[in-house]
């Protein structure tokens, strides 16, 4: 006899088969996505709440900054491994699930990010001993950087040893005006760390100081000389190098010879000759910002086959050479690009996900942007010459326009209606949402069919407790404030 008990006992078996089938389908979809988009960069929109200016130091386009204040957040595009800047603060963007930062840098000796201690500032006028004495391991759970603005007081040494034991790879920043003196003092009395990131300002004859750090993966270096004949010492773990040298006119062609393993290089200099880059065959990211001189893009042509990020700002010749890099995902265009060159590049580089443009009088029509089906992030600086074409870019998830245009509330409101789901922020100075959202949405949907609602509810509570949904919460609060 077919009893009610028998029917009930049979139902879970049918459900289990359905669950197994859906899991198999999910795995096939994920395998296909990983295979198809293996080389894809997945960029995130990183929000900054506070009073100041944010920037992506690793991918800076013409020194453009993204302001935030008490009412509105600033937002930059970034990917894992980028170095972000906010006022004097540097943040290594490695925790991709945390893409919203509330900054409090009003103190003399501590910088808080999302309410946690992020940076300790060693400065003569502030006494850190009372804070050190109360410091516990959990106090520095989120500590990322020690910023040395002066020599290290002897009384700090035991506490720095304790921090080094808990956070050996912490980033070290040295005050620009006295970097060599402070670095020498650090090496002499407090050389306890193996930093993954170093920021310093040196003359070329002081570069050998950097050879001390063998584990550093990222270097942000200010060079004050105009003619650089020295070479960067061997730093075997170095993957990313940011060179700020507004006075540099020429660089030794062998400057990077000791570090051919570099994958990311940023040059903020006045240099027409890029022979300095020739040893770097592993380059995946190149940023060139020219100050007061004209660069030649023909010297880059076909030399760096792995490039996926290329940002050039300033005045350049042979701009057509940019269209030969078919695998670019992120591109910054020179400020003297013509309408014809812009249209050609937009047609030929169909894989672009992020584009940065410096508006100028010769670039009056942006309709060619509609030929970029994968475009998710767009930054237009200085001048917005074509407002109308932006309405059609429905796929955008991040848009930054000049601050003067952002102040036009009528235009911005119309933009928001035309581009639903797109984050629109101003820029000054000279979505993707989170890029992983596009993959996570179908994944969550399929899992919701397979696993019990109760399990998903527990997972949501756990993620909320761990801060995984902090961005969504901050978005809601920001929208409420905007509506108010």
Explain the overall architecture.
The chain has 484 residues and is of the alpha/beta class. The protein has helices at 4-36, 129-134, 157-166, 179-189, 339-348, 403-406, 409-418, 437-450, 453-466, 470-483; strands at 44-49, 52-56, 66-68, 74-78, 82-86, 89-93, 100-104, 110-113, 116-122, 145-148, 171-174, 197-202, 218-223, 227-228, 240-244, 250-251, 264-269, 285-296, 309-317, 330-332, 354-358, 377-381, 398-402, 423-427. It has an 18-stranded mixed sheet. Strand 8 and strand 9 form a beta hairpin. Helix 1 (4-36) runs antiparallel to helix 8 (437-450). The longest helix is centred in the first third of the chain and has 33 residues, at 4-36. The model is unreliable at 1-5, 33-40 and 431-484 (pLDDT under 50).
Topology:
Elements: H1 4-36, E1 44-49, E2 52-56, E3 66-68, E4 74-78, E5 82-86, E6 89-93, E7 100-104, E8 110-113, E9 116-122, H2 129-134, E10 145-148, H3 157-166, E11 171-174, H4 179-189, E12 197-202, E13 218-223, E14 227-228, E15 240-244, E16 250-251, E17 264-269, E18 285-296, E19 309-317, E20 330-332, H5 339-348, E21 354-358, E22 377-381, E23 398-402, H6 403-406, H7 409-418, E24 423-427, H8 437-450, H9 453-466, H10 470-483
Parallel strand pairs: 1-7, 9-10, 10-11, 11-12, 12-13, 13-15, 14-16, 15-17, 17-18, 18-19, 19-20, 20-21, 21-22, 22-23, 23-24
Antiparallel strand pairs: 1-4, 2-3, 2-5, 5-6, 7-8, 8-9
Helix pairs in contact: 1-8
Structural key phrases:
globular; 484 residues; 10 helices; alpha/beta; disordered N terminus; four-stranded antiparallel beta sheet; 24 strands; single chain
């Amino acid at each position: 006899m077919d009893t009610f008990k028998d029917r009930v006992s049979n139902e879970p078996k049918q459900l289990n088969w359905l669950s197994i089938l859906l899991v198999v389908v999910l795995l096939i979809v994920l395998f296909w996505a990983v295979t198809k988009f293996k080389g894809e960069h997945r960029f995130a929109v990183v929000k900054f709440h506070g009073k100041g200016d944010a920037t992506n130091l690793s991918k800076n386009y013409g020194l453009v900054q993204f302001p935030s204040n008490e009412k509105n957040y600033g937002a930059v595009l970034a990917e894992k491994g980028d170095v972000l800047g906010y006022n004097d603060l540097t943040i290594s963007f490695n925790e991709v699930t945390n893409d919203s930062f509330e900054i409090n840098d009003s103190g003399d000796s501590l910088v808080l990010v999302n309410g946690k201690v992020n940076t300790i500032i060693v400065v003569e006028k502030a006494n850190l001993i009372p804070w050190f004495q109360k410091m516990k391991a959990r106090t520095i759970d989120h500590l990322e950087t020690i910023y040395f603005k002066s020599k290290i007081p002897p009384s700090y040494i035991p506490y720095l040893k304790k921090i080094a034991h808990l956070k050996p790879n912490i980033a070290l920043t040295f005050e620009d005006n006295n970097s060599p003196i402070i670095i020498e003092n650090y090496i002499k009395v407090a050389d306890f760390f193996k930093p993954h990131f170093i920021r310093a300002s040196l003359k070329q004859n002081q570069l050998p100081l950097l050879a001390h750090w063998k584990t550093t993966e990222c270097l942000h270096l200010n060079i004050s000389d105009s003619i650089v004949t020295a070479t960067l010492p061997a730093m075997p773990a170095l993957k990313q190098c940011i060179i700020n040298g507004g006075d540099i006119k020429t660089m030794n062609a062998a400057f990077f010879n000791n570090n051919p393993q570099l994958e990311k290089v940023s040059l903020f200099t006045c240099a027409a000759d890029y022979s300095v880059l020739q040893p770097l065959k592993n380059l995946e990211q190149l940023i060139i910002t020219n100050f007061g001189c004209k660069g030649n893009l023909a010297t880059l042509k076909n030399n760096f086959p792995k490039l996926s990020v290329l940002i050039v700002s300033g005045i350049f010749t042979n701009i057509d050479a940019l269209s030969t890099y078919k695998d670019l995902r992120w591109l910054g265009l020179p400020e003297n690009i013509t309408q014809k060159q812009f249209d050609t590049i937009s047609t030929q580089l169909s894989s672009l996900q992020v584009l940065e443009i410096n508006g100028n009088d010769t670039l009056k029509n942006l309709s060619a942007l509609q030929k970029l089906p994968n475009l998710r992030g767009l930054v237009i600086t200085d001048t917005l010459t074509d407002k109308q074409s932006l309405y059609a870019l429905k796929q955008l998830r991040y848009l930054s326009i000049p601050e003067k245009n952002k102040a036009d509330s009528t235009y911005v409101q119309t933009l928001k209606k035309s581009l639903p789901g797109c984050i629109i922020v101003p820029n000054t100075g000279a979505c993707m949402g989170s890029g992983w959202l596009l993959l996570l949405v179908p994944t969550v949907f399929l899992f919701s069919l397979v696993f019990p609602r109760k399990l998903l509810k527990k997972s949501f509570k756990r993620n909320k407790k761990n801060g995984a949904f902090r961005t969504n919460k901050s978005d809601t609060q920001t929208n409420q404030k905007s509506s108010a």
